[in-house]
């Protein structure tokens, strides 16, 4: 399978705190692989070890067949990294940011200029080539950070929460660029706590909670294996929800959340009709398909955004 990243028993400790608790991961060439989980799940700590900027506490890690403990510089030269924060030089133009970053990798200046033009076009920033970064929108800065991560034509692109803080339109623009990279055969490794992002981009993913992997597979496999086909969301006025016993036989599983009740069932329409027949009177009824957030709720007892 030509694994580019191989981890066995990978562990990261900070004093007595265990951020990553002995996980096993394989990422193969050309796939988009995701780490899904809430803040504090261990995703970023794992990415920092893969990116050779944080030492492994214990376990085995190989990136591009090399050991980060002894071959960190060689590995980093072949990685592209899009961190959570943009860390751009705001007093320089978009083109200057890319050219200077390319020089850090030892690329000839002529090649840096050529590469900057290619990447500005790829990220739809050509018209902003001479604009200072300080004058760009948040979405443009994020696309420039992605362009910068691609300057050295990396074997692996690491993306840590690539669309956090962006509005929906900007998020979809970034997703489109990442999808095009995947089509070109670039290996993507990303962390996210957005279920729709993971479903859109990832071929395979692991669900993390408390530093451990609680499930692994493709988005479709995870939903099929850990949830029902549909979910009925019932929203009630404050303090007006009936007791959970009123819903006990309406689904495979019932989750009571603040001001809403979730019914997990393979026939959402039938369950919704039965709710009305019983006179339970929700203010809002929504029938939807199961998602990765439902999977996470089933596996851990809390949602991705808590």
Automatic annotation (TrEMBL):
<keyword id="KW-0067">ATP-binding</keyword>
<keyword id="KW-1003">Cell membrane</keyword>
<dbReference type="Pfam" id="PF00005">
    <property type="entry name" value="ABC_tran"/>
</dbReference>
<keyword id="KW-0472">Membrane</keyword>
<protein>
    <submittedName>
        <fullName>Lipooligosaccharide transport system ATP-binding protein</fullName>
    </submittedName>
</protein>
<comment type="similarity">
    <text>Belongs to the ABC transporter superfamily.</text>
</comment>
<dbReference type="InterPro" id="IPR027417">
    <property type="entry name" value="P-loop_NTPase"/>
</dbReference>
<keyword id="KW-0547">Nucleotide-binding</keyword>
<dbReference type="InterPro" id="IPR017871">
    <property type="entry name" value="ABC_transporter-like_CS"/>
</dbReference>
<feature type="domain" description="ABC transporter">
    <location>
        <begin position="5"/>
        <end position="235"/>
    </location>
</feature>
<dbReference type="GO" id="GO:0016887">
    <property type="term" value="F:ATP hydrolysis activity"/>
</dbReference>
<keyword id="KW-0813">Transport</keyword>
<dbReference type="GO" id="GO:0005524">
    <property type="term" value="F:ATP binding"/>
</dbReference>
<dbReference type="InterPro" id="IPR003593">
    <property type="entry name" value="AAA+_ATPase"/>
</dbReference>
<dbReference type="InterPro" id="IPR003439">
    <property type="entry name" value="ABC_transporter-like_ATP-bd"/>
</dbReference>
<dbReference type="GO" id="GO:0005886">
    <property type="term" value="C:plasma membrane"/>
</dbReference>
<keyword id="KW-0046">Antibiotic resistance</keyword>
<keyword id="KW-1278">Translocase</keyword>
<dbReference type="InterPro" id="IPR050763">
    <property type="entry name" value="ABC_transporter_ATP-binding"/>
</dbReference>
<dbReference type="GO" id="GO:0046677">
    <property type="term" value="P:response to antibiotic"/>
</dbReference>
